[in-house]
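Handout for the seminar on molecular recognition.
Each group receives one record of this type.
Step one: identify the two inputs.
Step two: read the structure output and locate the region that could contact methionine sulfoxide.
Step three: write two sentences on what you found, then compare them with the reference statements printed after the record.
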Amino acid sequence: MSTINETNYTLIEKQLASLIEGETNLIAILSNTSALLNDNLTQINWVGFYLIDNNELILGPFQGHPACVHIAIGKGVCGTAVSEDKTQLVEDVHTFPGHIACDANSKSEIVVPIHVNGEIIGVLDIDAPIKGRFNKKDAQGLQAIVSVLENQLAKH
Ligand code: SME
């Protein structure tokens, strides 16, 4: 049985799959995904995407306050997720070397790389206003959400 505050990622996965079924437009898919996650995740202050364009990350669809537009690959939590091709689970952003503070309220963060046909195309980035908001279960749940996205994007 799950605790009251535990996010039901399986349910979000199902909702996402039906929400983006048959859709081919990247911006529309990512916009609705950010809105769905914003509706379903508690204690977050930013959720959205950065997409690789001309060898850097550029701000994509998101929910939250306006954010930095350009992030170099290898810089910040997002750029590190790309250069290491690995989910970044950051309990306290102030201890992450080179963390880029777009929103001063952000205290913890999770970033999951997104792949299409074996190539990394960008990241899902979520910020929280409390330390230690995300754990391994969140990482697994969000990776499963990203897999739903990847499957849909790979079809086209
Ligand atoms: N904190 C991120 C920058 C993006 S904002 O969180 C929206 C980073 O260090 O890459």
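Reference statements: The mean pLDDT is 94. The pocket of methionine sulfoxide is lined by residues 46, 67-68, 71, 76-79, 99-100, 102, 106, 109, 125, 127 (CB under 6 Å).
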